[in-house]
């Protein structure tokens, strides 16, 4: 962890296309992009989005008030649209062909090896990345770390299990 703290102070900002940062294990980012499209373009109620249901899901390790988190996300969108992304997105660099990812279900860690397609994983900044994808930005500021201690989330497998439950909660 100490090496990670040292890196945080010494890594310079680079610029990457947000499209290469959308990885197959991060369906949650796709939910965020879809949320912006549904709410901002189609006028769908917050509660009727998969993102809202995902945030409201208490089985995840991180739980938030879905109403507040959704409104904060919309505020972030407006801020980025006006001012661009000011804080670089933290990216982990993983050069191996496969990476170990995890999701937590019923308070148990489930580990899944996945093919590493582009060597990058979002460590911090999924909301900012989703906004960049929604706005179709060409390049975004990132800081790329050789992450030693970060557990790579696999929300895609988690969502595959939980999505039927989310759909039941959405008012048709």
TrEMBL record:
<dbReference type="InterPro" id="IPR036086">
    <property type="entry name" value="ParB/Sulfiredoxin_sf"/>
</dbReference>
<protein>
    <recommendedName>
        <fullName>ParB/Sulfiredoxin domain-containing protein</fullName>
    </recommendedName>
</protein>
